[in-house]
Amino acid sequence: APDMQIRALSGEPLGVEVLGANLRTATAEDVERMVDAMHRTGRGVLVVRDQHLAPTDCERACAMLAPHFVAQQPYTRWPGQSKPIPGCPHLALLGNYRAREDNEFGMDVVKGEVIGEYKPAKQNLEEWHTDGSFLPNPKVAIALYAPQLDDALPPEGGETRFASCTAAFESLAREEQEKLRGLCSVHSWEKFMRLLESRDPGRQKVTAEQIAEKPPQLWPVVRTHPVTKAESLYINPKNTAAVVDKATGEPIPEEDSRRLVDRLAEAVVGDGLPGNSKVYAHRWKKGDFVIWDNRVLLHAASPFDAQKYQRLLFRMEFKGEPVLGPSTP
To answer: Residues 259-309: pLDDT tens digits?
Structure first.
């Protein structure tokens, strides 16, 4: 696009924004420029402003991005998630937004029904996470889009916060980096789902059968990015069940494990609040399309007054790939 501008987000520790682009008509070359800037300058966060996308346009935009992030991930619903949108097999909805008409977006919904997955957020360290680390191939990237609807974003709160696991690893002393290269951690879907259930008593509970289908995964605490070759921390405050010494295969004591994960999370996010020098807090505007590299970031939703405001985002994921360990074993 001749008018397309890509620039670093002013005054922020990470992120690039794209102005003057149209994801409905973007070329492969446009997309390549965006993704290159996202890796090179944005530390994994790309914000495309002022988009006018129907659900099917989101599907097409993500199909254009997919070659850079393995492939699109089909949406397979689990307890508490949104109903599917016909004709959009990769798209889910987030938020407490209530349908304004029957069959809104072509969905099997009635007026007044909450049509997104609503997860009440908390302002604590445990809110920070990387998506799908409990899967055999954790997701490579996630995209969110704020549709052009009035009163579907809270005017206060509700930001999506990001912090760089690469910057955090680079900030550590060399001796600590070396020590961390010798550790792995256990990522548990069950722990994650029980946390969500504890916050929302009305949420549908996962069954023993569903838990058995998603066994815990063991990943290196330091991973290498396949494109940039940079090392970063790979931790998940929301679902880490244990930390394991690679050399012995033995877990370190539970209390030490929890303290280590918390300390490393603080190295990534600081206090985690908007305005912190480690955190980019994305304040949503209508038409924002945001994609982030899930391999190198922690992210967290910010709380908002759900009695007062509604929030709706379209959510799309990209498939997983094996986690590469440290580049210097």
So the answer is: 999 999 999 999 988 889 999 999 999 999 999 999 999 999 999 999 999
Q: Give the DSSP per-residue string, 220-280.
A: ESEEE-TTT--EEE---TTTEEEEEETTT-PBPPHHHHHHHHHHHHHHHHTT--TT-TTEE
Residue in the block written with tokens 């300390």? 263
| Residues sharing a CB contact under 8 Å with residue 5, sequence separation 6 or more, in sequence order | 18, 19, 20
Please give the single-letter amino acid code of residue 110. Answer: V
- Give yes or no for a contact between 182 and 320, defined as CB atoms under 8 angstroms apart: no
Q: What distance in Å separates the CA atoms of residue 219 and residue 98, rounded to the nearest whole number?
A: 39
The arithmetic mean of pLDDT across residues 253-261, rounded, is 94
CB burial of 90-122 (b: ≥16 within 10 Å; e: otherwise) equals bbbbbbbbbbeeeebbebebeeeeebbbbbebe
Query: What's the pLDDT tens digit per position in 30-77?
Result: 999 999 999 999 999 999 999 999 999 999 999 999 999 999 999 988
Q: Which residue has the tokens 């809270």?
A: 154
Q: Distance between CA 314 and CA 329 in Å, rounded?
A: 39
DSSP one-letter string for 51-111: ----HHHHHHHHHHHGGGSS-BPP----TTPPPPBTTBTTEEEESSPBPSSTTGGG-S--T
Query: In sequence order, what are the beta bridge partners of 93?
Result: 314
Of 70-74, 195-199, 223-227, 287-291, which range is least confident? 195-199
Residue 326 corresponds to which amino acid?
P
Encoded tokens for 13 = 């520790």
The type of residue at 288 is: D
Kind plus residue range of the DSSP H or E element containing 141: strand 139-145
Question: Which residues make beta-bridge pairs with 316?
Answer: 91, 143
Q: Rounded distance, CA 153 to CA 161, Å?
A: 15
